[in-house]
Every structure is written in C-alpha cells, then in structure tokens.
Design brief:
flat, about 5% strand, mainly alpha, 7 helices, 3-stranded antiparallel beta sheet
C-alpha cells in the first residue's frame, strides 16, 4: 500500500484508495480501510480532515527523514553506551588496585568474617535480654494503658446500648445479655 503513495506522490481520499489498491496492488477492497488505519496509527501515512473529507498522504522524503532520525538516535545511544562501558571498565580496573590476593589480605578477610560472626552472636544475646530493657518495659506499660482505656470505653458503650435497649424496647437486662452473648460479670477493668 505504501508503494501507491510513494509512486504517485499524491493525496488521496479513502474512496480513491479503495478503488486503486485492489487494481494496482491486489489488496482486497474489504481490508484497505483497516490497512490504511494501521499505517496511520504507525505514523507511516499522514491524514487530515478537511471539511467533511479525510485525506491521506505519504511522501518518500518523510520516510527517509524518519529513518535518518532513528539512525542518528541509535548512533547517539550507541556512543553513550560505549562511553558508559569504558567508564565502567576503568572503574573495575581502579577497584582491582590494592585488592590483589595476598596473605595479608586473606588474613584480614578471615578476621572480618570472624568479627561479623561475633557481632551476630552479640546481637542475638542482646535480643534474649530485650524484655528487661527499661525502654521496652515502658513501651509495654503504655501499650497496656491504651488497651485498658479502649476496653473500658467499649464496656461503657455496651452498658449504654443495654440501657437504651431497656428504655426503648422494655427488655430485661438478663434477656439482652443472653441474646447478645454478653457475660453476666462484665465490668470495667481497674
């Protein structure tokens, strides 16, 4: 289909292309509109609405310019990637300096591993005694205080609803407790 545009270097309406494409290129007339729309979507064919008609065109120079732009873009990306690769190679070479395998380096690596293991042992020992830490104990006290206040607030809410239900519906307190599974000894927490 692109050959029709490139050979004629002309502007077409859809009905013109639907007539020309089957004759010259052997494209079925039913698929011309779909093919043309996919070319427009891909940016290979330009379209514009003038008045009530849609016009389609594609010139070889536009395709050439698009390819040149893409080539330049890819070449610049290649250049940037090459520079990045060289920089990384230099960085690797720099980092290798002073890291040659020597007996001293091996001993230091061994010592480092032993110190890291010792650190983990000390950490686990600290975690064992964590519950005796004054900060943790204070945090537990604060958490307990908040939980106690919340429990008392809900207990108060339950008492308020029971009182409302007694006034509104005339139910007995024991019947309300039994219906809603409220324990008989429900009371505030001191």
């Amino acid at each position: 289909m692109m050959e029709i545009f490139f050979e004629t270097k002309d502007v077409f309406q859809l009905k013109d292309i639907e007539k020309i494409a089957p004759k010259e290129k052997g494209i079925t007339s039913m698929s011309v509109k779909e093919i043309l729309q996919s070319l427009v979507d891909d940016g290979m064919v330009d379209t514009d609405r003038i008045g009530t008609s849609n016009y389609f065109w594609a010139f070889p120079s536009k395709a050439l310019h698009a390819r040149k732009r893409k080539l330049e873009e890819l070449q610049s990306q290649f250049g940037e990637s090459s520079q990045k690769k060289e920089a990384l190679q230099k960085s690797i070479e720099k980092s290798k300096i002073g890291r040659e395998d020597t007996a001293e380096r091996a001993a230091l690596i061994e010592e480092l591993a032993a110190l890291r293991q010792r650190k983990e042992q000390l950490k686990s020992e600290i975690d064992k005694y964590r519950e005796c830490d004054p900060d943790v104990v204070e945090e537990m006290r604060q958490t307990n205080k908040v939980a106690k206040e919340a429990a008392n607030r809900w207990t108060d809410n339950i008492f308020s609803i029971k009182s409302w239900a007694k006034r509104k519906f005339g139910f007995e307190e024991s019947r309300i407790d039994k219906s809603f599974g409220i324990p008989e000894d429900l009371d505030y927490i001191d």
